[in-house]
Design goal:
Layout (H helix, E strand, L loop, with lengths): L1 E3 L6 E2 L15 E3 L35 E3 L5 E5 L9 H14 L4 E5 L3 H13 L2 E7 L4 H9 L3 E5 L3 H13 L3 E2 L6 H7 L1 H10 L4 E5 L4 H15 L8 E7 L4 H8 L25 H10 L3 E5 L1 H12 L7 H12 L8 E5 L12
Parallel strand pairs: 5-13, 6-7, 6-9, 7-8, 10-11, 10-13, 11-12
Antiparallel strand pairs: 1-2, 1-3, 4-5
Helix pairs in contact: 1-2, 1-5, 2-3, 5-7, 6-7, 7-9, 10-11
The protein binds pyridoxal-5'-phosphate and zinc ion.
């Protein structure tokens, strides 16, 4: 196993405390000989394709339902069924296991709330400390989770971007960097969503993924490229990334045909979980979308509200960031018989204020 820079190609041994490339980019895990040997349940079913082989900490993350739509010809991947109510638990299980094996006693993250709640829970379970930096706009439900799990909660005036600045400072003092996307092991845990979809229905024609940092779409695409390399599949799904209209730096970069997302000065949307001005994983998210001949689009807050109700009518309660997947589905071109999977990233109970 090695860490590879998607920007400059430089390779690194996975040594303690190595998160980023010297060029400043995030890194991805690369395996020499990958073996497909699923065994057991949840995320750790795919241990042969994960970077952590030793003792792991699990709250039974992963193994979420893939529910066929009643009104629409789609599959909903219900990530709200994870232990803390969002897909983050998959990446967190790997990251916290890795932090403990590297001897860290504290893990720190910056988060729009879900990652913070997840890290807090897994740190509690692994009996280490967690420090969580969140922007002031974080929904009270997510703050309550972080407090209940006993983590140190640091509310930062400003946005996710400001919380990340505080995080770097904290990590330089010796805690483990557990932030979405900028920790390469996190992407590895997340990719198990792709493996599960493959095991359930094969390769969908399209997968619609809400994007904040772009880590999730990066990870699901990575899963399918690995399956292709292991000769399990021949074609890749079209990756369709969605952001909120008022905060869509990756979608803007896609439309402009460039590789890097420019920081958006003003972001404002009810989809607070994906309100991210400066995405870490822009390059790899754009690569996933372009290489798979997918698409990137944005949806308005009104369309998100409508989609929350649309999911509700099918018995699914999603938080606003997750409902963007259905809002995007309503807007894209589809062909009859297309197999489409929507990643419903988090439970509606996480951020119910948009409904009231
Ligand atoms: C509910 C929800 N959906 C989607 C995302 C987007 O994931 P990513 O930041 O990896 O693009 C997040 C990220 O925080 C989230 O919390
Ligand atoms: Zn680099």
């Amino acid at each position: 196993m090695e860490l590879v820079c998607p920007r400059c190609g430089k390779r690194y041994k996975p040594t303690k405390g190595r998160y980023l490339c010297d060029c400043g980019s995030v890194l991805l895990v690369s395996y020499k000989n990958m073996k497909w040997a699923p065994r057991g349940e949840g995320v750790w079913r795919y241990k042969s394709c994960l970077p952590h082989k030793g003792k792991h900490f699990s709250l039974q993350e992963g193994g979420t339902p893939l529910v066929k739509g009643r009104d629409r010809d789609v599959y909903y991947k219900l990530e709200g069924d994870n232990p803390t109510g969002s897909f983050k638990d998959r990446g967190t299980a790997v990251v916290v296991s890795r932090a403990v094996s590297e001897g860290f006693k504290t893990v720190s993250t910056a988060s729009t709330g879900n990652m913070g709640a997840s890290i807090a829970a897994y740190a509690a379970y692994a009996d280490i400390k967690a420090r969580i930096f969140v922007p002031s706009s974080t929904p009270i439900n997510k703050l309550s989770q972080i407090i209940a799990y006993g983590a140190e909660l640091v509310k930062v005036k400003g946005t996710f971007h400001d919380a990340v600045a505080r995080l770097w400072d904290d990590v330089s003092k010796g805690s483990y960097l557990a932030v979405t996307g900028a920790n390469p092991y996190y992407i590895e845990g997340e990719k198990t969503i792709g493996y599960e979809i493959y095991e359930d229905i094969g390769v969908p024609d399209k997968i619609i993924v809400p994007m904040g940092t772009g880590g999730l779409i990066t990870s699901i695409y990575k899963a399918f490229t690995e399956l292709k390399r292991m000769r399990k599949i021949r074609k890749l799904p079209q990756m369709i990334g969605v952001q909120a209209g008022n905060c869509s730096p990756i979608v803007n970069a896609y439309s402009e045909g460039v590789d890097r997302a420019e920081r958006m000065e003003k972001c404002n949307t009810i989809a607070s979980a994906i309100m991210i001005k400066t995405p870490f994983n822009d390059l790899t998210a754009l690569n996933a979308i372009r290489k798979s001949k997918g698409d990137a689009l944005s949806v308005s807050d009104a369309e998100i509200r409508h989609a929350i109700r649309g999911l509700g009518e099918e018995g699914i309660f999603a938080e606003p960031a997750s409902a963007t997947a259905l809002a995007a589905y309503e807007k894209i071109e589809k062909e009859k018989g297309d197999k489409v999977a929507l990643i419903i990233t988090g439970s509606g109970l996480k951020d119910p204020s948009a409904v009231i």
